[in-house]
Write a structure and sequence with these properties.
about 180 residues, Gamma-B Crystallin, domain 1, 14 strands, four-stranded antiparallel sheet, mainly beta, repeat, 2 domains
Length: about 180
């Protein structure tokens, strides 16, 4: 494993066993290096892992540390086919949510994590949003559980633009660089 810089090491088996592959940047197709991923080590930086190649499928956002099995990063299975570095994992943080597509309807501005969207937002759906500063993760359920969606600086006119099939957002977390 790299001793400095930003790197991630994928292992085919649990507990950092089996064939491994060290990655230091974005990769659109990991299948040529590993068949499956049951554990990994992150040596610096925040990463988004994708279930399919070309940055598609379920997303898993992970930071520095060791993950001895895929459930440790909330993985649904051992399938990781692409990954990329999250570029803006530091503050300040500002996010504006909208209850209608194309930035319509009522809005709510956030600068902190939200453990339960329903506590501050009358609707459980977020139809569009603007990431004004920082990088954020939308979770399908409250308490930072369920499917994850990375949102980096920019405008998202519809929930499909951040990769969601539904507009349901249960909780929201900032990505903090350690």
């Amino acid at each position: 494993m790299a001793t400095s810089g930003t790197a991630i090491v994928f292992f085919e088996d649990q507990d950092f066993q089996g064939k491994s592959y060290e990655c230091k940047g974005d990769s659109v197709d990991l299948h040529g290096y590993i068949r499956r991923c049951n554990s990994l080590k992150v040596d610096g930086g925040w990463w988004v892992l994708y279930e399919r190649d070309n940055f598609t499928g379920y997303q898993y956002i992970i930071g520095p540390g060791e993950y001895n099995e895929y459930r440790r990063w909330m993985g649904f299975n051992d399938c990781v086919r692409s990954c990329r570095i999250i570029k803006n994992a530091k503050g300040p943080y500002k996010l504006r949510l909208f209850d209608r597509p194309n930035f319509g309807g009522q809005s709510l501005e956030l600068t902190e994590n939200m453990k339960s969207v329903q506590e501050k937002w009358v609707r459980v759906e977020v139809q569009s949003c603007k990431v004004l500063e920082g990088s954020w993760v939308f979770f399908e359920h409250p308490n930072f559980c369920g499917r994850q969606y990375l949102l980096e600086k920019g405008d998202y006119r519809h929930h499909s633009e951040w990769g969601a099939l539904k507009a349901t957002v249960g909780s929201i977390r900032r990505i903090l660089q350690l």
